[in-house]
Design goal:
Blueprint lengths: L3 H26 L2 H12 L2 H6 L2 E10 L2 E10 L3 E8 L2 E8 L2 E6 L4 E7 L1 H9 L16 E10 L2 E9 L5 E6 L6 E10 L2 E15 L2 E11 L2 E13 L12
Antiparallel strand pairs: 1-2, 1-13, 2-3, 3-4, 4-5, 5-6, 7-8, 8-9, 9-10, 10-11, 11-12, 12-13
């Protein structure tokens, strides 16, 4: 009778135990900051986004079967302006140095009207080229990993950000490439708070930074808008007077 087989079994059991232990340790070690850091790097790096001075994005927004020209201009971290031409009427969202205003004849603001509260906070966040998830610490948010959740048949990391006023938003990161594929949060639309979901796709590279060129915005499972960017220009001249209240 051989004593080698029992000894071999004991060794194999130890090896499998060590292997499983390492897998568990590796899984537990991947914190929310690990995931966000990899996400930021996969997009081109937070510092590289911060180093961009200005940006101009042009494309279209589609709503109710109609397509309208869209232009976004920003001075990174300081000012932003969104212009949409809707059948001859201008819709404008604008922010600069802590103050915001809008023009939206469909929302009871036919002339430049000041914005405040959560709407102003949204405008401010849009003045940054990097997403608030990528730069959450400097913007005063707290991040929490809520495990994984299914997004269109694929598992995604689910990360919740909480602001100083306890407002929450949720980001979903694809673990296969660490791209942002979904965002969920509450936004002010036509004077009312709405729970919106944004789905991101068609990632392209501009000056070694990655951007999602297509975004589908839904509420209650219904598509409200589709955004498609055709062109992104970085570090281009922008006249800061366009951000002043008209």
């Amino acid at each position: 009778m051989s004593y080698l087989a029992p000894a071999k079994n004991i060794i194999m059991k130890k090896l499998f135990f060590v292997l499983l232990a390492l897998i568990v340790i590796k899984t537990q070690a991947q914190s929310v900051d690990d995931i966000i850091h990899i996400y930021a790097d996969s997009m081109g790096g937070l510092n590289n986004f911060k180093n961009v001075k200005t940006a101009k994005l042009t494309g279209t927004v589609t709503a109710q079967g109609n397509e309208f020209p869209l232009t976004v201009q920003m001075v990174n971290g300081k000012a932003m302006r969104v212009d949409v031409d809707v059948m001859g009427q201008s819709i404008v969202n604008c922010y600069k140095d802590g103050a915001g205003w809008k023009i939206n004849p469909y929302d009871g603001a036919p002339s430049a009207t000041d914005v405040s509260g959560t709407e102003l906070a949204d405008f401010k966040d849009q003045s940054f080229l990097a997403s608030q998830l990528m730069d959450y610490k400097d913007r005063g948010y707290k991040a929490e990993l809520l495990g994984q959740e299914d997004v269109d048949g694929n598992k995604a990391y689910k990360i919740q950000l909480t602001s100083a006023d306890s407002t929450t938003s949720t980001y979903y990161i694809d673990p296969s490439n660490y791209m942002l594929i979904k965002f969920a949060g509450t936004r002010t639309v036509m004077g009312q708070d709405m729970k919106l979901e944004s789905y991101f796709s068609d990632v392209k590279d501009f000056n070694n930074l990655k951007f999602s060129m297509s975004r589908v915005i839904k509420a209650g499972g219904q598509t409200l808008q589709e955004l498609h960017f055709d062109k992104i220009e970085l570090d281009v001249p922008i006249d800061e007077k366009i951000f002043d209240k008209q």
